[in-house]
Amino acid sequence: MKGRVLNSIAILVSLVILAVGRASTSDLPALKDVFKDYFLIGGALNRNLVMGRDPNAAQIAIKHYNTATPENDMKWQLIHPEPDRYNWGPADTFVEFCQKHNMVPIGHTLVWHAQTPRWVFQDSNGGPATRDVLLARMKDHITTVVGHYKGRVKGWDVVNEALNDNGTLRNSPWLRIIGEGSPEKQYDFIEYAFRWAHEADPDAELYYNDYNLDTSKAKCDGAVAIVKYLKSKGVRIDGVGIQLHAGLTYPSVETLEYAITNLAATGVKVMVTELDIRTQTRGYRGADISMVSREGTADPNAAAAETQKKLAEKYAEIFSVLLKHSKSITRVTFWGVYDATSWIGGSPLLFDRNYQPKEAFFAVIKTAQQAR
Questions:
Q1: How far is residue 28's CA from residue 31's CA, in Å, rounded to a whole number?
Q2: Fewest beta carbons less than 10 Å away: which of 78, 116, 118, 318?
Q3: CA distances from 190 to 13, 88, 173, 209, 226 (A)
Q4: Which of 54-58, 90-94, 304-308 is predicted with the least confidence, judged by mean pLDDT?
Q5: pLDDT tens, 247-268?
Q6: β-bridge mates for residue 160, sequence order
Q7: pLDDT in tens, 114-139
């Protein structure tokens, strides 16, 4: 009996703590309202959130976001795992969640070298597919996926991470097979992807998306070259996504502004598509998923007051730059909702592992108040 009483008391205390937490967060200003005069605010939503298995995270998203991106469920390996099979359920649920809660849904992503099944790039014997076969598979995938969501998805990350940090095209299977080693064909896979996405939904916006555009001027110049090439061919491209996977010491204001101003100068929209900040000060800085793991980016000092202060200061610096250039920026999307589900672990977002706002949250709010 005593054990049951103690257990009941423990449960009651937990419920009280949770209720107090919810009460405090319900009084917060909503990010989407604070920045409504500047740009959309969103987050990457995972399957647990949109399917109701993480209701606290869902409440954060519903309160603070007016746009959302699926973290994984529209990537090729999950939505089109086998040649003749599409798995629409989770992605459909994401779109329905966005529609129900007045969030602008963004499709992510159609053509990427990662999280794409090996069969896409192979022939029946396991060797490399031919250019014509790979182009046909790309067309089928883009036409089917974009067509399935025609009129329901605002814009698509059509091509993702096609550049090296030096601005050259990544030596991916898309480039190797479709480009056939010819300089004249190096942009072919990008051009075809954008053409077919436009044909599948003429009203959808189309984006190129990449990381380190905010830290590498050469990579930013490579993205500018992609935009100019597509425009020279009369191919629709509406925007470029700066992923902005930042750290406590990067990007600098100067390189971030370089990216925003140079991309905007091409006449396309600029958006921040995958914002988070690593608290770990050493190690890999990019966003190549083969180089990143939660263990590899773990930071035992992430929750320390000094670290959280630096995190808040960096978020404030980044948002001050974004507000300064808000006429060029249409959307800012965090890559995640709260720290516990972040792809890089540590303490990279505005809400902690208990769904509570951090010092960084209030620092971001303050930048908008100071900009008025």
A1: 9
A2: 118
A3: 56, 25, 13, 12, 8
A4: 304-308
A5: 999 999 999 999 999 999 999 9
A6: 209
A7: 999 999 999 999 999 999 999 999 99
Q: Is residue 17 part of a domain?
A: no
Q: 12 lies in a domain? A: no
- Between the alpha carbon of residue 156 and those of residues 6, 45, 67, 68, the distances in Å are 53, 16, 13, 12
* pLDDT value for 295: 56
For 281, phi then psi, to 5°, come to: -95, -10
**Coarse DSSP helix, strand, coil percentages of the chain, rounded to the nearest 5 percent:** 45, 15, 35
- Model confidence at 280, pLDDT cuts 50, 70, 90, reads confident
Average pLDDT, the chain: 92
The span from the CA of 6 to the CA of 318, in Å, is: 48
Task: From the candidates 71, 191, 205, 274, give the one annotated as an active-site residue.
Answer: 274
Task: Tell whether 4 is covered by a domain.
Answer: no
274 carries an active-site annotation: yes
Closest alpha carbon to 63 in 105, 93, 22, 91: 22
Among this protein's residues, is 191 annotated catalytic?
no
The string of DSSP letters for 212-236 reads STTT-HHHHHHHHHHHHHHHHTT--
Question: Do the domain assignments include residue 150?
Answer: yes
Q: Which positions ≥6 away from 311 have C-beta within 8 Å?
A: 248, 277, 279, 347, 358, 359, 360
φ/ψ bin of 258: left (φ > 0), alpha (ψ from -120 to 50), beta (otherwise): alpha
CATH of residue 196 = 3.20.20.80
For residues 97 and 46, give the distance between their C-alpha atoms in angstroms, rounded to a whole number. Answer: 11
User: Is the Cα dihedral 56, 335, 280, 116 positive or negative?
Assistant: positive
Helices (H) and strands (E) in the chain, counts: 14, 9
The tally of domains found in the chain comes to 1
- Annotated catalytic residue within 161, 191, 205, 359: 161
What gap in Å lies between CA 160 and CA 226, rounded to an integer?
12
In this prediction, residue 23 carries a pLDDT of: 40
